[in-house]
Amino acid sequence: MEPKVHILIVDDEEIVRESLAGWLGDDGYDVGVAENGARALERLPEKDWNLAMVDLKMPGMDGIELMDEIRKVKPETIVIIMTAYATVDTAVQAMKKGAYDYIVKPFNPEDLSMTIRKIIEHQKLVKENIYLRKELKKQYRLHDMVSKNHKMIEIFELVKTVAKSNSIVLVQGESGTGKELLSRAIHMESPRRDAPFVTVSCAALTETLLESELFGHEKGAFTGADQAKSGKIELAKDGTLFLDEIGDISLKLQMDLLRVIEQREFRRVGGTQLIPITSRIIAATNRDLAKAIEEGKFREDLYYRLNVISVHIPPLRDRKEDIPLLVEHFLDRFNIEMGKNVDGLAESAMRLLMDYGWPGNARELRNVIERAMVVTKGRIILDADLSLPQASGVSAAQDSRGKSLSEMEKEHIRQVLAANRWNIVRSAQVLGIDRVTLYNKIRKYELKKEPVLNT
Fold this sequence. Notes:
The protein has helices at about 15-25, 35-45, 65-75, 90-95, 110-140, 150-160, 180-190, 205-215, 230-235, 250-265, 290-295, 300-305, 320-340, 345-355, 360-375, 395-400, 405-420, 425-430, 435-445; strands at about 5-10, 30-35, 50-55, 80-85, 100-105, 140, 145, 170, 195-200, 215, 230, 240-245, 265, 275, 280-285, 310, 345, 380. Helix 2 (about 35-45) runs parallel beside helix 3, helix 17 crosses helix 18 and helix 18 (about 425-430) packs across helix 19. It has four domains: about 5-135, Rossmann fold; about 145-315, Rossmann fold (3-Layer(aba) Sandwich); about 315-400, Orthogonal Bundle (Helicase, Ruva Protein, domain 3); about 400-455, Arc Repressor Mutant, subunit A (Orthogonal Bundle), CATH 1.10.10. It contains 19 helices and 18 strands. Strand 6 and strand 7 form a beta hairpin.
């Protein structure tokens, strides 16, 4: 059974209200009437009005003013302006302000019925398209992650299976690919979803601080330890412990962690009591652990204990079909967070995003879209709103041909640092990485701040 279509008629002339209500009622519509703008606003909450037919000239609040109010309260309601004073100016003004159409008095009942029927059919198609788009998005979504790439879809399916077990998971991928998001998805898909998800950033702490952060400490364990403190392993009780950038921990801590994983118990720093581990462990890294093992920087036995279930997230440059989907995902989020109504990107702006190499992956794309949302002055993001190093479309892509990935990354980081005058915090945000990772890459590529010449 088709849902009832609700139509609200607003006109100060009783004969017009009664005539329209009679004609539309005979056509099977549920019709409500109001003699002025104030009464119409009172009636708005009564129903989900599909259509409002509003007279242009009314005492007090006119049709354009009422239409503005309707759009604030019921933005999904289609508004048609009725007028006996049809001119090009009034029509243009009504359409600019958001009217779907305007009709001229006096009405021909048959023409009016056909017009209303077309509008209702159009609205139905729009709603169906919105529903289908939402359903399509569900197919490509895993909690806060979206992708239509076949490898990512396989990973999403693997996550749903893996989540039901207690096995350790090792998530690998470049910075910004979404390793933590994927780990959170595993947690949310698991029976542990109501228990804590506790994150430890292994790259951001010194060995001593990381040891205390993980295991906690007893009072007096070291200078400044004036009270006992629970570590992250304890805090993750019955939940998930996420060890981010596990490839950055020292060999000593690797040995301690291996012992903890094998024995499923640990002691606080300076303590003697054994505390059982009831959390699941998920580790993540952007390093090549096989290479780190060859270089003697990572324990092979720990690698095999962590690598029970391995997930490798491909970089964004290898799944560029995801860029439009991610852009739409970020636009939806930032429209809500910023209270904006940005519809999308200009075709040329989307081409720039598609041609770019994305060394900072999805996190960098998110930052670029967030900045564009802040600076854009309209409802469409233009090329000028995007902040991309060498954002010159095809020429930028051509310049990168023949260069290795390391060379491209080095040049990109150098440009971002220069553009931000070597402000590490701001540069790390633009690149979509943390400060420690940026410092490591500056050392790796031997980047140096170029002196500013006064001329």
